[in-house]
Give the backbone structure.
Amino acid sequence: MPASHDVVVIGGGGAGLRAAIAIAETDPRLNVAIISKVYPMRSHTVSAEGGAAAVAGADDSLDEHSYDTVSGGDWLCDQDAVEAFVQEAPRELLRLEHWGCPWSRQADGRIAVRAFGGMKKMRTWFAADKTGFHLLHTLFQTALSYRDIVRYDEWFVSTLLVDDGKVHGVVAIELATGRVETITAKAVVMSTGGCGRVYPFTTNANIKTGDGMALAYRAGAPLKDMEFVQYHPTGLPFTGILITEAARAEGGRLLNKDGYRYLQDYDLGKPEPVPVMRSMELGPRDRLSQAFVHELDKGRTTLTPHGPVVHLDLRHLGAELIDSKLPFVRELCLKYQNIDPVTELIPVRPVVHYMMGGIHTDIHGATGLDGLYAAGEVACVSINGANRLGSNSLPELLVFGARAGRAAAEYAAAATGTGPGAAVVAQARDEHRRLERLVAHHAEGRERIADIRTAMQDTMESGAGIYRDRDSLAKAAETLPHLRERYGRAAVGDHSRTFNTNLIALLELGCMLDVSMSIVHSALSREESRGAHQRTDFPARDDERYLAHSLIHHEPDGTGRVEYLPVTVTRWAPGKRVYGRQ
Ligand SMILES: Cc1cc2nc3c(=O)[nH]c(=O)nc-3n(C[C@H](O)[C@H](O)[C@H](O)COP(=O)(O)OP(=O)(O)OC[C@H]3O[C@@H](n4cnc5c(N)ncnc54)[C@H](O)[C@@H]3O)c2cc1C
């Protein structure tokens, strides 16, 4: 007998836990399960440092947060979603406070806020520079208080069960034993996070392999705006470890090899004197990452054994401020780079950080499949448009995790019928057989999984990096099918059932190859430059043709069919993005 729940949430990160709590709150009679391939507290949300944006002070307004988000996203955001988001974000952050989140405070006890890139007012709440840890911990312990939430920790979901456009559950592998289980549900919430690992140099944890995007895509749900890949301007060379934008929000400066604050040459404002949120170092991430490439082209970066870098200078901030506001930055620099930012410059370079695209949803998290909801980085609502503003993702997890949870709960509570039919049972049986035979099938393989993965990552970086054009993208589109062929001959050397990480790496690589194809095909199709999608052969934004979301549908041959969906504009007609002193 398969395990059965009313709602299954896939993912124990910020979005998944928030969704599970919302389901339990909406209808306590519902039986909820969370399936996560890692223990929930190890989800990538834990590593968020800088903070979560929500209007807090009397000098700020919901309209200003909306406008910054819409213009930061180069007018590709759906404005109804943005308005709902900015309205609900303060309530969600306050709720988190009531659940125990230790937000940093001002001396008089009010919530402290900091500046963040592209936000023209200070509205980023933070818990020192360990915001994600505290946020996830708060959600996890709150979820624990709902005794009816069942957890499948360290279970890997390998497929969605879908019949006639409707989701009926999943098949998953228990990592500790290799046991394969069918888990049926009336509704499924996908909250599996992003896919930075399709690129070679990323701030993303190893587990961010786009599984949920690939599973939904294969099952018939289209992916939206996949061409928009965010590079964060300040990663440590070699490891890709993130130096949070909070370091620049506290006054950090970016210097080229001549010690010059080069951002003043890129329409992002002047060096001095400006309030910190108008400083050029707090321009949006797409612009700052693009400026790095121009500095590189001009020979104004420093070459290190791990590639070219510029430097982040925090020295003028002093030990006291760094230790109180940026303790984790100092710790990371000391541990992983062997430098002390109190006295030394930090070498940094752009690094893949976040996917603006994901599973297409409406503002309630509903996808193209009945009963399937999505929230968090795996989803594209879209509030992030062509470029996400830093600190908008954490509140997005809360606002849309809660919305998706409520919608899934209502759907499950209203669901009638006798449960999965013969087609679903057959699908589950086929997946069991496939998984049972997978290790044997790949036992004779000759190709190393790591080699195929590296080739895929290099293909994506050279084909669909910060700047792309038709030739680079076409080359990537040609290479990826060859990698897919090699994937069929990949070797799985570990034949055991217990924690077979080799097998999981194989399944994850399969997901990443599908996601890569969707990025490349969506990028090929969009013949304009907007936000994080910069085509050197189409350098201008083209609102006539492309004020629209791309929707890519999976084709049986592995390619994708792209169509466009108009952007929802409620109040802000497309304009020019202006930063710096205004
Ligand atoms: C280093 C870093 C710093 C960041 N800092 C900030 C910040 O300061 N502010 C901000 O707003 N944003 C920040 N972000 C972005 C933000 O943290 C993420 O977008 C967000 O945390 C994603 O949350 P999520 O719940 O969608 O997914 P995740 O937290 O990534 O969780 C995904 C979950 O899905 C599960 N899962 C995945 N695949 C499977 C599968 N096949 N089967 C079962 N389970 C599966 C995983 O086990 C995990 O529990 C940062 C990101 C990084 C990488």
Observations:
- The chain has 15 helices and 22 strands.
- The longest strand covers residues 180-190.
